[in-house]
């Protein structure tokens, strides 16, 4: 039959022309222990971070130091990566993904134990701007996973990093057990051998019912990175998800702590251990 009133629908163009043109023929995920990471790998990681992570926010120069000029790129040297992210004596991992032999993203994580449970904390996650929104962050976090990990943690101002962590570590952002974060984040952070995690202050109504700032599950880390990009991601996400972690304010980041779901394992057993 002929349709005498054909339906005409507008098909929106893809978000970015560059994204649609990019081919990803060869995608390789690799994982390394601290002592396997060479200086040249760290040099590449330093460049990836310094060119793609983000820029300093308006208050950074005042709060962090003069070097953190508003709008200038947040940088990390390879020496700092080695000393802070792959510290001797910590069980640290480095994972990276190359696309057609170019470094497209990487992540660092360190592990420590609390009440007999192994905590794996993602200390850095960055994906090259040309390769975003193609599942690489989820892939990197998946690559970090070890069978004996009990809990995963992450602090990030980027809602996409939280989404990726929820997905890679076995859940969905809409189903994360906030109760587990409320009851365990403080003790896990306090036991961390990493100073910025240990010293971060929990913020939001999850931890303080009288907090009316709009924060829910956040940490004050004093990291005044510019929030323009994370805030626009948050606005986009709120159109399709019931975002559970609250608002994003300057100097604070979201915190996500997820227990590995195993048979006969529960939040209760974590607390009792
Ligand atoms: C955060 C970051 C690592 C995400 O990397 P990515 O490879 O683009 O993430 P993925 O493609 O794996 O996407 C994960 C989820 O986030 C969503 N997402 C990614 N970027 C998004 C954006 N800008 N806005 C809305 N949603 C976004 C994806 O659609 C996906 O959701 P889905 O699984 O429901 O489809 C990347 O944007 C980045 O490097 N940002 C700058 C550095 C940073 O803030 N790092 C986090 C600090 S720990």
From TrEMBL:
- InterPro entries for this protein: Acyl_CoA_acyltransferase
Protein name per Swiss-Prot or TrEMBL: N-acetyltransferase domain-containing protein
Species this chain originates from: Elaphomyces granulatus
Record's Gene3D superfamilies?
3.40.630.30
């Amino acid at each position: 039959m002929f349709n005498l009133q054909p339906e005409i629908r507008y098909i929106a163009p893809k978000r970015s022309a560059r994204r649609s043109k990019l081919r990803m023929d060869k995608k390789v995920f690799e994982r390394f222990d601290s002592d396997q990471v060479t200086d040249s790998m760290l040099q590449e990681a330093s460049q990836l971070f310094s060119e793609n992570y983000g820029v300093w926010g308006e208050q950074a120069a005042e709060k962090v130091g003069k070097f953190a000029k508003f709008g200038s790129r947040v940088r990390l040297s390879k020496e700092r990566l080695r000393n802070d992210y792959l510290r001797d004596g910590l069980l640290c991992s480095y994972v990276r993904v190359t696309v057609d032999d170019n470094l497209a993203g990487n992540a660092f994580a360190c592990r420590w134990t609390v009440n007999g449970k192994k905590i794996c904390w993602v200390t850095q996650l960055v994906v090259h701007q040309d390769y975003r929104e193609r599942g690489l962050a989820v892939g990197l976090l998946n690559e970090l996973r070890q069978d004996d990990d009990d809990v995963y943690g992450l602090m990030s101002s980027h809602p996409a990093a939280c989404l990726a962590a929820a997905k890679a570590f076995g859940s969905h952002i809409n189903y994360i057990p906030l109760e587990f974060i409320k009851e365990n984040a403080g003790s896990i952070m306090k036991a961390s051998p990493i100073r910025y995690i240990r010293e971060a202050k929990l913020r939001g109504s999850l931890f303080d019912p009288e907090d009316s700032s709009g924060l829910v599950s956040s940490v004050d880390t004093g990291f005044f990175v510019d929030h323009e990009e994370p805030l626009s991601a948050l606005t986009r996400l709120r159109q399709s998800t019931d975002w559970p972690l609250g608002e994003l304010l300057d100097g604070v980041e979201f915190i996500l702590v997820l227990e590995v779901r195993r048979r006969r394992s529960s939040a209760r057993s974590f607390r009792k251990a």
